[in-house]
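Request: Could I get any protein with tokenized structure?
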Amino acid sequence: MSFRFENLDVWKEAREFVKEIYKVSADFPKEELYCLTDQLRRAVISIVLNIAEGSDRKSDIDFRRFLRTSIGSLEEVVACLYLALDLRYIDKEKFDKIYEQSNKLAAMINAFIKAISSSSKR
């Protein structure tokens, strides 16, 4: 048996994004463990979990709501990354790389929302 979300490219991409965020946040100062590190990791995990949870909803309207929530979590990740940059926990090059990945993932989620919206209107 497989779950619907396991076949979604957007979910797979989100999983890769989680790995990247965990790698970069592993180098944050230990005093940030229960603050910025924790917040960043919870936000990135929320992206993956909302895609998965929404995928089994009985309506596309519900699924879209979960996908929009995952975009909100992605925006939270980006805000945390700005703070990490400001605090010099990451350099500009690392920030730019992850920012680019963030934009790619946001575009994938938005395209998926649009595809679901289009298919439910037919």
Notes: The two ends are 29 Å apart (CA to CA). The CA atoms of residues 58 and 64 lie 11 Å apart. The first helix runs from residue 9 to 25. The mean pLDDT is 96.
